[in-house]
Amino acid sequence: MEKILETLKSERIDDSSYRSPAESTCISNLIAFLLFLANDVDNAVEEINKVLSSPNNDTNIVALANMAVIKWEIGDRMEGETIIERLQELSEQGNFEDKVIDAKAEMAYCYSRMGMSFASRAEDIFEEVVEARPHEYTWKYGLAKILRRFTQSTYILFFRISFELASQKSLRAFDLLLEIKNSRAPGGERAQALTELGLLLQLKWNKQFSRLVDRAEEERITAQQCFEEAVELAPEDPYVLTHVGNFYNYAKQLDKSRQLLQRAIEIRPTTTSYHLSWEDTCTHVNYPKS
Question: What residue spans do the TPR repeats cover (predicted)?
Fold first, then answer.
C-alpha cells in the first residue's frame, strides 16, 4: 500500500504529466482512500475536500462516499449521515445514472492501480464503462492497458488463463489502442496509447500472439513507429520517456536510450524504475551515473 501511495504522489508532483482531468480526480480519490487506510485521517480529509472543491466535482460520488465512511469511522456520525443524505438526494436527480458511470470508471481505475489480483475486476468494470461511454478515450485506454497486462506471463500464470484467451485480449487491446491513436483525443492521451501499443507489439517474438502480429502487419504499424510518435506527441511525459528509453536500450541504441531515460529522471526523479533503467543503460555504455 505504501508503494502505491508513493507512486501516486510522485506522479502528481511533476507539472508535465499528460493526464486527463478525470484521471487526476481518480488519483486524488485513491490517495485519499489509501491515506485513510494508513490512519492519516487529516490528510485524507484534506485530499477529499480538494476533489470536492475542484471544477465539476462538488457531487463526485466517490469523494462523497469516502468522506462519509471516514466521518463515520472517526466518530463524527452526524456529519457522516449528512453526507449520506446528500448522496440520497443526488440519487433522485435525473443525471444520477451518469454520475454512477463516473463512479464506476473511477473504481475501475483504482482497481487497475492496486496490483495484479484486482486486474480482472478492473477489466470487467472498464468494459461496462466503455460500453456506456464509447467516446471517452480515458476509459478505453484504461481497459486496453489492463488487457495488455494479461499478455504477460505473470498474469497468465496467476489467473491460469489459456494462451488463446490471452491472444484474444491482446487483439482487443490492439483495437482499442489503435482507435485512440487514430482519434482526436488530446496528444498526451494518444501518446500514452501509442506507448502501450508499442509495448504490445513487442510480443511479436511469441508465436502464441501470431494473430496480433498479423493485425499489426495489416495496419502497417511497428513498435518503433509507435514509440517514435509517442515521444513526438508527449516529449515531457515520464511514462512515455521511460518505456521508449527502455525500448532503445534493448535495441542497443544506447545514446537514444540514455537521453530519454535521463529526461524522465529529471522530470520525476523519485521513481525507482527510472533509476534502474538509467543505471542499466549506464552499465552498457560506461557512462557516469552522476
Answer: 238-271
What's the rounded Cα separation, in Å, for the pair 32 and 97? 24
* 105, 133 contact by CB (below 8 A): yes
Look at residue 163 and tell me if it is in a domain. yes
Domain count along the chain: 2
Q: Report the CATH number that the domain containing residue 134 is assigned in CATH.
A: 1.25.40
Q: Quote the cell numbers at residue 198.
A: 508499442
Contact criterion met (CB below 8 Å) for 231 and 244:
yes
* Pure H helices in the chain: 2-13, 21-37, 41-52, 61-73, 77-91, 96-112, 119-132, 137-149, 153-159, 163-181, 187-201, 210-219, 223-233, 238-250, 254-267, 272-285
- Single out the residue in 38, 60, 93 at which a domain terminates: 93
- Other CB atoms closer than 10 Å to residue 85's CB: what's the count? 11
C-alpha 246/C-alpha 260 separation (Å) is 9
Q: Which three cell numbers stand for residue 138?
A: 480515458
Q: Among residues 204, 244, 209, which one has the least CA distance to residue 224? A: 244
Q: Which three cell numbers mark 247? A: 525500448
Summarised one tens digit per residue, pLDDT across range 172-224 is 999 999 999 999 999 999 999 999 999 999 998 898 999 999 999 999 999 99
- Confirm whether pTM is higher than 0.70: yes
Model pLDDT for residues 79-110, shown as the tens digit of each residue: 999 999 999 999 999 999 999 999 999 999 99
Q: Is 207 exposed, middle or buried (0-12, 13-18, 19+ CB in 10 A)?
A: exposed
